[in-house]
Amino acid sequence: MGETPAFFADNLLGDFPKKVDSKSKANETAIVVGSKIYVINGVDPESGSTIGVRIFDKTSGEWINPIVLGTKPEPSKHHSAVLLNDDRVLVVRGNSTFSECFWFLEVGTPFVSEQENTLGNEVVAWSKGVLGNVEKPIVISGPSGVGKGTLISKLMKEFPSMFGFSVSHTTRAPREKEQNGIHYHFTDRTVMEREIKDGKFLEFASVHGNLYGTSVEAVKVVADAGKRCILDIDVQGARSVKASTLDAIFIFVSPPSFEELEKRLRARATETEEQIQKRLRNARAELEQGKSSGLFYHILVNDDLETCYEKLKNILCLSEDVKSARKTFPESIDLSIEHSVSKIDQNLLINCSTAEHEKASNVYVLDLSLLKGGAPGRTRGLNMYANNPLAGDVNRDNQLS
Ligand SMILES: Nc1ncnc2c1ncn2[C@@H]1O[C@H](COP(=O)(O)OP(=O)(O)OP(=O)(O)O)[C@@H](O)[C@H]1O
Ligand SMILES: Nc1nc2c(ncn2[C@@H]2O[C@H](COP(=O)(O)O)[C@@H](O)[C@H]2O)c(=O)[nH]1
């Protein structure tokens, strides 16, 4: 049995408050769940290592080192912890950007129980909290030259904070204006084949003689930014996504005629004649599959661009109201050592006020009512807004001063 840290030895014996934020000078938090106390050690970032978790079993008086699953948060000099629903602990890391601030330690969720049964050991599992009510990803397919990229660019331009593009990997050579990491991750076939074997891809396909694929990371990056992911992939890729765990909306874009498709491909002038011929041959098969496979619930004919774009927005329920309701989250908040957190119903109040900054609007409300997902991936649906107690008004538009 390990040594009980002095700061909460009394609590182990006494009436340790349940469901209450706890904080210690030793950068450890202790959370009571039934007969167990979960001790989270923030670790001094200078000494490295990852954030640690131990369990004290009050019944046996023993310390347990659990198997820790999921991606762990980076060490943090100070953090707070709050128990939610008796099955997960919300950890708020100090001095952190939003994307690294909120973490969930699952201690009694169905996932953890299942893993405990399989592994025959005490298990805890981390998942990262992601801001925003990210909706289903959108898969857009259609023959080469039909206008998928054009429609996606318009959507991203009009709703920059709402949509994020899944940057695919490809073995084809970059076109003149294409940038690595923005339009594609341009890569070698041998490297990509190895990464496919290593399970790094959600889907991949051989398209027009080259390999194309969506990495798991490409989709995660978009979701972590609190945005809805758009995938521009071929029909084979769409089929693989449909068979995967990613729950997406599938849209097929069709040309008004084959002649018009050919005209657009030629006018784009990005392919050689041989490549154009190959793409047109493949287009016939893609059009057939797109319309008859039952894979695509939405089929859009891209005749007049503006009309087609409006129809796309209708499918995605992008009315003017939705547009104006959507606001971006601030980049980061300063959770100094002084911060405190408290839970009221489904809201977590994070108070970062200090003596010097007491006039500043630095009380934040984290809305936990729409949580989705969880370990071993991400816990999504966190919503946050600033609450200025001095003005007595809640600013739900996230416009932090
Ligand atoms: N509705 C439209 N009317 C006329 N031209 C269009 C229309 N939509 C797109 N285009 C043009 O057609 C060409 C092909 O469009 P785009 O590159 O977006 O196709 P794509 O489907 O993304 O092709 P690929 O699959 O090869 O990437 C571009 O030059 C674009 O400007
Ligand atoms: N299955 C996948 N298909 C993809 C992916 N990224 C793009 N594509 C499709 O390839 C063709 C050709 O694209 P181009 O940029 O060379 O013109 C087009 O139909 C895209 O939809 C991917 O990751 N997976």
UniProtKB/TrEMBL annotation:
It holds the Pfam family Guanylate_kin. Residues 266-293 form a coiled coil. GO terms for cellular component: cytosol. It catalyses: GMP + ATP = GDP + ADP. Residues 135-317 form the Guanylate kinase-like domain. Keywords: ATP-binding, Coiled coil, Kinase, Nucleotide-binding, Transferase. Its EC number is 2.7.4.8. One of its GO terms (molecular function) is GMP kinase activity. The keyword DNA repair does not apply. Belongs to the guanylate kinase family. This is Guanylate kinase 1. It comes from Anisodus acutangulus.
